[in-house]
Amino acid sequence: MSITSIVPFGCCCGPATLLKRNGLRNKSCFFDWLDGNLFSYIDVVNNNFEDVLNVTYLVQMFDNPSIILNKRYNFSFVHLFDRKKTFSEQIYAVQSKVSKQIKNFKECLNGDSLLLYYCRDRNEMLEIIERQQDILKFSDYYKTSFVFVFNYEPKSSFCFKYYVVPQNNTHFPFGGGVTSPFICEDLEKYLISIFDENIRKQNLKWKDPEKNLINRIKRKIYSFKKDKLIISQSSEED
């Protein structure tokens, strides 16, 4: 039986990019464009996304104003904020967008879903292997499973399906440059083989820029008007 939802779970934008490229990404979800680690993301979900955009915990990176660090969970937003705007000018619009991404994630995380996680760090990989029982508890509770991508071959037994790709890029924490987080043909073939083909075809149609240019423009206009309304309402409340 094919699955209907493969959800990118970090650690960076690589999984979301791979899924979108292959028509396997149904919706834009919360973890698509973050930079962090697996167990911080698990904490976020277990805490029902509490404080993810609480300004008390947000820090703007001095050398890159578009990068916003969440101190409570130690992950960064790397694509949501505009470096040309001040933090206060955009926080309300970003909160609205993130609320929708959280809603999408919860809808995608169902009994017929799979989480894709890319681990680029050797020390994190060792922690993942050591804490397999914690990951299994999370998977059982939310009735989902994981596929992992590592840059290194695990030296110990590992109960989840995984793929190993050579580390072919330089990726620094909190928004460093990425040439290609990973390219793994075997992984892509596997995910395509288990995914619902009808949903994949529909996703690929949405990805086609010629067929969907008008719809994309309409969505952009709607999003722009909605963001302005949110900012206006917030200003009035202040």
Written account of the structure:
With 238 residues, the chain is an alpha/beta fold. It has 8 helices and 8 strands; from the N terminus they run βαβαβββαβααββααα. A 4-stranded parallel beta sheet has the order 1-6-7-8, with helices on both faces. A 4-stranded antiparallel beta sheet has the order 2-5-4-3, with no helix packed on it. Strand 4 and strand 5 form a beta hairpin. It is globular and about 45 Å long. Mean pLDDT is 84; it is low at 170-179.
Overview in brief:
The protein is α/β, with parallel strands linked by helices.
Helix- and strand-based class?
A: alpha/beta
> Could you give the count of β-strands?
8
* Mean pLDDT score: 84
Distance between the termini: 52 Å
Dominant shape:
globular
Radius of gyration of CA atoms, rounded to a whole number: 18 Å
| Spans of at least 5 consecutive residues with low confidence | 170-179
Strand content: 5-15%
Task: Please tell me the total number of domains.
Answer: 1
The proportion of residues forming helix, as a percent range, comes to 40-55%
Main beta sheet, described?
Answer: 4 strands, parallel
Number of helices: 8
Order of helices and strands: EHEHEEEHEHHEEHHH
What topology, given as strand order, has the largest sheet? 1-6-7-8
